[in-house]
Amino acid sequence: MKIPTANSVRAIFAYVLALLLLSQLAFSLFAWRLFDQELPPEMARKAATIGQSIQGKLIAAVNAGVPFDKLVGIDDFFSDTIKSNRDLAFLALTSSDGTVRNAVGIDVRAAGDIMSGHDVAANGRMERFTSRLAGIDYAVTSLPI
After folding, report:
1. What does the DSSP 8-state code read for residue 96?
2. Is 66 left (phi over 0), alpha (psi -120 to 50) or beta?
3. How far apart are CA 118 and CA 108, in angstroms?
4. What are the tens digits of pLDDT across the range 58-111?
5. Left (φ > 0), alpha (ψ -120 to 50) or beta: where does 105 sit?
6. Helix, strand, or coil here: 118?
7. 121/135 Cα distance (integer angstroms)
8. Is 99 helix (H, G, I), strand (E, B) or coil?
9. Which helix (H) or strand (E) holds 53?
């Protein structure tokens, strides 16, 4: 039996290492594509769930007799919600005319720019859209109250 030389051991090691690296690269590309396809719908579902929870609480307050324009503590409520859901970029509350009343996680003016052209109150149902501001794409889920 012939003992392998150091050069042949290195060649076998390099070959096996190259195969492992190629297989990892192929797996990474496959996982990235799958991740890229599956993540946006899941994030949209999460945003809708959070939005419906907020919507329910705000509707309950209005139904309890608190006028919409007199709601207080919205910024604190939104801040707590964003802190516990770090994948949310911002939360905003707009009046029926589209004016942003409260915004957390983003400037009120920027929230207005993102929401411009989307009148959710007019169609009375949840709306999802993408808006671009300062080179950043925002996937927005908007619900009427």
Report:
1. T
2. beta
3. 16
4. 888 888 888 877 878 888 888 888 888 888 877 888 776 677 777 887 777 777
5. left
6. coil
7. 27
8. coil
9. helix 6-63
